[in-house]
Specification:
By secondary structure, the chain is an alpha/beta fold. The chain contains eight helices and six strands. Strands 1, 2, 3, 4, 5 and 6 form a six-stranded mixed sheet that branches. Strand 1 and strand 2 form a beta hairpin. Helix 1 crosses helix 3, helix 2 packs across helix 3 and helix 3 packs across helix 7. The protein is globular, with a radius of gyration of 19 Å. The relative contact order is 0.17.
Length: 236
């Protein structure tokens, strides 16, 4: 991890702080106190800068570890409060809970749904589903047909709106939002977008990313450290 000009803390400590914030229901001031108990003085505003810098980078580098889904996809949107207003987080998992993708949008409409589908399925054909389960929101049928017309989804892709299909992703929303700090509200769309990338990344890690064998908290932290080159001193 590169020692940037003006940064006076080592990489392991920075990544530990970022992991604490994204993994547990802690505020920046909570983490400030945890470090102070250890004789380390870190201002909460510094912790905020670390999260906004390294959370998106963690999510970006973890994408290469993702495994293809089983073909049966569940898509839904959940509400995220930003500066006192509700915004929309589109998310997709497969029926086994494997994470696929996500997108924070200001509105819930056809354009937003199309942006999400293109982000989730356009780049890699391995991630094109054969079945898609959604709720009965009006944007989804038109969006799916548009994606078929653009050859992003295969013509044989089946769209289902059974409520029972959505239970898994609704539970997954809860797992994601459980870690959001107690105030439950982001102060800007920019901050929300960057921080949510970190929350999603940690949830990917908790699910195992398809790794076999034991997947303890120590193994998860080792993966995060290796992603940032902290095991072999590779600069970020």
């Amino acid at each position: 991890m590169r020692q940037d000009q003006g940064r006076h803390f080592n990489g392991l400590m920075i990544i530990q702080a970022v992991n604490w914030y994204l993994r547990y229901c802690l505020s920046y001031r909570d983490i400030e106190e945890l470090f102070l108990e250890r004789g380390i003085n870190v201002d909460h505003s510094t912790l905020n800068r670390w999260v906004l810098r390294y959370a998106p980078l963690l999510e970006k580098r973890l994408r290469s570890y993702r495994k293809p889904h089983c073909g049966e996809v569940r898509i839904d949107e959940t509400y995220i409060k930003v500066k006192g207003q509700w915004k929309y987080l589109y998310r997709a998992i497969d029926k086994n809970g494997t994470a696929i993708d996500f997108l924070l949008t200001a509105k819930r409409n056809i354009k937003a749904a199309q942006r999400f589908f293109r982000k989730a399925f356009k780049k890699d054909g391995l991630f094109a589903p054969t079945h898609i389960g959604t709720d009965k929101a009006l944007p989804f049928p038109k969006t799916i047909q548009t994606m078929k017309n653009e050859y992003i989804l295969p013509n044989h892709c089946v769209h289902e709106t059974k409520k029972s299909l959505q239970q898994g992703i609704e539970n997954d929303h809860f797992r994601l939002k459980r870690g959001i700090p107690r105030n439950g509200c982001f102060q800007s769309f920019h901050t929300a977008r960057k921080t949510l990338k970190g929350y999603e990344a940690i949830l990917w890690i908790k699910k195992g990313l398809g790794f076999k064998g034991k997947w303890t908290i120590n193994e998860q932290i080792k993966l995060i450290q290796s992603i940032f080159g902290l095991n072999n001193n590779i600069p970020v």
